[in-house]
Specification:
The protein has about 350 residues and is mainly alpha-helical. The chain contains 14 helices and no strands. The radius of gyration is 20 Å and the shape is globular. It is a multi-pass membrane protein. Its main location: membrane. Belongs to the binding-protein-dependent transport system permease family. FecCD subfamily.
Length: about 350
């Protein structure tokens, strides 16, 4: 039995790895201008190729952004679901992404109005503050209600409040700022630069490593807080770390790509189904790779399905993610009815 499980884990991770590589290549090659794999290899070797600027300045940074931020989305969703013991907790549903979006829009309008450039680090800090504000409200509500549905409703309401404040801020922006804010708020990996990729890669890598180091206490926490305390786990410290790490990941996503819906909910659930395991040491890398695959696939569709018009990434992720969320809720309701 144990041997079969190990084989299953190996197959799942091999498939995820292959999907990541395949989708990375497809995202670089497919577009209004076709780029072949041979062109990519030649360019990497330093040879002069046609459309090298499109390859290195547009498609490569965008592909890496989808890869990194998609993984961050999957991981943030897993942390929130573990924290709340709730299968449909996620940055978008709980209003955390909306809070981050609100503070980033305030900073963008204010600083751009003062003719001050906004750095990547400043965007992440602003998004983190907004994510923490929303998370604080969600935590307060979660202590008052036990129902999963009520927690989701509270998250949606927090999201609406943050969106209303964002719209209010936008009314005071000039036309150029409104265009930038509108494009960013719809969710997109376009316009990513190598400087952005560097900042997001370092932020997500350090945060993901910290999450992976929490695998053992997370495994105990999943079995209940009392059980974790008996094993010597500092539950309060662990819960604080989960809040901070999920907020940093959510902030990084919103700062660079805007709010992206449903990935954080769907990916951890799918990873759990494929692995038939909830072990954090397996779920953490699986959620990261799964999030990368999901976002790379959706970004490819967003660019190509309605070309030359580009869809927002949230539109595509919602089409695939929303049915999964509905299925989770229906399944959960059936399980409760059976009990």
């Amino acid at each position: 039995m144990e041997q079969k499980r190990k084989i299953r884990y190996i197959i799942v991770f091999l498939l995820l790895g292959c999907c990541v590589v395949l989708l990375c290549v497809l995202n670089i090659c497919i577009g209004s201008v076709s780029i072949t794999v041979f062109d990519i290899l030649a360019s990497i070797q330093g040879k002069a190729v046609e459309n090298a600027r499109i390859l290195w300045d547009i498609r490569m940074p965008r592909m890496l952004a989808a890869l990194i931020l998609g993984g961050a989305l999957g991981l943030a969703g897993y942390l929130l679901q573990t924290f709340f013991h709730n299968p449909i907790a996620g940055p978008f549903v709980l209003g955390i992404s909306s809070g981050a979006k609100m503070t980033v829009s305030v900073v963008m309008v204010f600083l751009m109005g003062q003719a001050i450039s906004v750095s990547s680090g400043m965007m992440i800090v602003a998004a983190f503050v907004g994510a923490m504000i929303s998370m604080g409200f969600v935590l307060l509500v979660s202590r008052k209600v036990d129902s999963m549905a009520m927690l989701v409703v509270a998250g949606v309401m927090i999201g609406y409040i943050c969106s209303a404040i964002t719209e209010l801020v936008v009314t005071f922006a000039d036309d150029a700022q409104i265009v930038n804010l509108h494009n960013w708020s719809r969710g997109s990996f376009s316009g990513t630069t190598w400087d952005n990729v560097t900042v997001m890669a370092v932020t997500v890598a350090v945060t993901s490593l910290a999450v992976f180091l929490l695998s053992k206490p997370l495994s105990a926490y999943q079995l209940g807080e009392s059980y974790a305390k008996n094993l010597g786990v500092n539950v309060r410290g662990l819960r604080t770390a989960m809040v901070l790490l999920s907020s940093i990941l959510s902030a990084c996503i919103v700062a660079f790509a805007g709010p992206i819906s449903f990935v954080g909910i769907a990916v951890p659930h799918l990873a759990k189904q494929f692995l038939s395991s909830t072990k954090p040491i397996l779920m953490i890398p699986a959620c990261f790779l799964g999030g990368s695959v999901f976002c790379l696939f959706c970004d490819l569709l967003a660019r190509t399905v309605m070309a030359p018009t580009e869809l927002s990434i949230s539109t595509v992720t919602a089409i695939f993610g929303a049915p999964i969320v509905l299925w989770i809720m229906i399944r959960r309701n059936k399980e409760r009815t059976a009990e």
